[in-house]
Design brief:
Blueprint lengths: L8 E4 L9 H8 L3 E4 L9 H6 L2 E4 L6 H5 L6 E4 L9 H6 L3 E3 L6 H16 L2 H9 L18 E5 L3 H12 L3 E5 L5 H6 L3 E2 L2 H7 L2 E4 L13 H5 L6 E4 L8 H9 L5 E4 L19 E3 L8 H19 L12
Parallel strand pairs: 1-2, 1-3, 3-4, 4-5, 6-7, 6-9, 7-8, 9-10, 10-11, 11-12
Helix pairs in contact: 1-12, 5-7
């Protein structure tokens, strides 16, 4: 990785730029200035946007308007895997490279998905509540099935989907997978049964979502899909909230048409305190934390900073999303 002698301003989408940890250190070590602004619309952000050469963003929208306020920007880096908040066409039209980090939290997210599945499979919430209430009995567990007799369906067979499938196989489960972008033969090479979307929906006891949010995946799990699931089936979503129609999901659970769900992502984040899914007995919700471990965080911040440094030095990024 080359070091460019030119000093550039890098605007980070957090108030405290040092939150970038090893990424902050790398950018400073290569001579760049790092400033932080959580709100890019704030008055005090305008001068830094006007002079910046790079934007490092979380979930802030990066559209033509923002890029117009950052006329010297050469690279936008999305801290994470999903990039639906970045307008790739608007960036390309201005000659701005866009990068992301698709591989920093593969083990964390897949482990979180499996953890959620196991919590539901063993009725962990009910057992914890019983023991805390002094009820030393397994009766709170209800009637459950042996995990090895059940099927996990994986929708989306990228890095995280593959790892989730492998971990489920290690637990002795049968695993189905569907991904229209990946040939059935490649799925079968992993020892996983390739299946159509309808087959995964119909045959699975658990369905784990590992899809990007795009027009074709928004509300992929809708009322129609939910109506074809087993009454005992459960949804696991560690991808993006918009992949699931939350109203349809809530209705299906309350009406007993599916057994429950485990969600690390929601349409609106953070959700309002009275969001019904937060208080539904057969739903587990975690606060978009599946990606996290100290190692994953440090990898994410360092890799994103490295790609900023590459682009500003005239090199190709390791994780490009567009060409200019």
């Amino acid at each position: 990785m080359a070091v460019n002698s030119t000093r550039h301003c890098v605007v980070l989408g957090f108030d405290n730029p040092r939150i970038l940890g090893p990424g902050f250190d790398l950018l400073q070590a290569t001579g760049h200035e790092v400033v932080g602004h959580q709100d890019f619309d704030a008055v005090e952000a305008a001068p830094d946007l006007a002079r910046c050469s790079a934007l490092v963003v979380g979930l802030q929208p990066v559209d033509a308007d923002l890029l117009g306020r950052a006329p010297n920007c050469r690279v936008v880096t999305r801290l994470g895997v999903g990039y639906e908040n970045v307008d790739l066409e608007a960036a390309a039209a201005r000659g701005v490279r866009v990068t992301y980090c698709p591989d920093y939290g593969v083990h964390e997210v897949s482990t979180h998905a499996i953890t959620m599945m196991l919590a539901m499979a063993r009725n962990l919430d009910s057992l914890l509540a019983a023991s805390r209430a002094g009820k030393w009995t397994r009766s709170a567990m209800g009637s459950i099935d042996r995990l090895q007799d059940q099927v996990l369906g994986v929708l989306g067979f990228g890095r995280i989907g593959r790892e989730t499938a492998a971990k489920a196989r290690g637990l002795g489960m049968r695993v189905l997978a569907h991904d229209p972008a990946i040939a059935d033969e490649r799925i079968a090479e992993q020892g996983i049964e390739a299946a159509g979307f309808d087959d995964v929906i119909r045959r699975s006891d658990y369905i784990s979502l590992h899809l990007p949010l795009a027009p074709e995946t928004r509300h992929l799990i809708d009322a129609r899909a939910l109506s074809r699931m087993k009454p005992s089936a459960r949804i696991i979503n560690t991808a993006r909230g918009g992949v699931v129609d939350e109203d349809a999901l809530l209705a299906a659970i309350r009406e007993g048409r599916i057994a429950g769900a485990a969600l690390d992502v929601l349409h609106t984040e953070p959700p309002p305190a009275d969001h019904p899914l937060l208080h539904e007995p057969n739903v587990i919700v975690t606060p978009h934390a599946a990606w996290y471990s100290e190692g994953a965080k440090n990898d994410l911040f360092a890799r994103c900073a490295e790609d900023v440094i590459r682009v500003l030095a005239g090199e190709e990024p390791l994780y490009p999303l567009n060409t200019v």
